[in-house]
Amino acid sequence: MVKNSNPGRTPFSANAGRYLAASPLPAATCLFSAAMAVSLPLLAFRFLDEGHTLKFFSLQIIALGWTGLAVFALADSLSRYREHVRMRNMFERFGLRKRILRRAAGSRCQRDAALAAAGEIGCLLEARGYFRSLGYRWYHILPDRVVANPLLFFSPSFLLTGFFSRPLRKQKTPPMASRKT
């Protein structure tokens, strides 16, 4: 077992596991899209060697589309990981509150991040039960707002809030929590 030389930081493997638990669907989409973006140009070069330039350029354009999808999926998964860290901090500070979970109920990716955060503090079953009581099941993948209005997916506000969340800031400890009694 490798000893962590910096006690304030967690090893990469622990963070990678948290990252995958917080955003399994976007991370899988990113990996699959990246694999397609790499394999299609390799196939395209075979067609170029055989003299099929139209097939070569067609596959290159399709590979660019897969690259774009991989970038968006990566941005989404990083945003969900930030959401996971934010929720975990709130759960550690306030405990498992329905008010916190309710904000994450509208999207499958946010529910996954909330469930991963609740699992880290030992409240996974309660959080899963809360989402189940709201009627959400494993097959509810699309966000509620997109189901209500499919064109909302292309609005700038949805893209900014969904894919590009703000970076986390260090929180100061509240005055009451820092006092020793």
Characterise this structure.
There is one protein chain. By secondary structure, this protein is an all-alpha fold. The protein has one domain. It is 69% helix and 0% strand. The C terminus is likely disordered.
Protein traits:
mainly alpha, 181 residues, disordered C terminus
Task: Give the helix tally.
Answer: 9
Molecular shape: elongated
Helical amount: 55-70%
Q: How many structural domains does the protein architecture include?
A: 1
Roughly how many Å is the radius of gyration?
A: 21 Å
Look at the structure and give the mean pLDDT.
Answer: 84
Order of helices and strands: HHHHHHHHH
How far apart the termini lie comes to: 39 Å
Which residues form runs of ≥5 with pLDDT under 50? Answer: 175-181
Approximate strand percentage: under 5%
Return the structural class: mainly alpha
Number of strands: 0
What does the secondary structure layout of this molecule look like, with pairings?
Elements lengths: L11 H11 L1 H26 L3 H42 L3 H6 L4 H13 L3 H10 L10 H5 L7 H8 L11 H4 L3
Helix pairs in contact: 1-3, 2-3, 3-5, 5-6
What is this structure, in a nutshell?
By secondary structure, the chain is mainly alpha-helical. The chain has helices spanning 12-22, 24-49, 53-94, 98-103, 108-120, 124-133, 144-148, 156-163, 175-178.
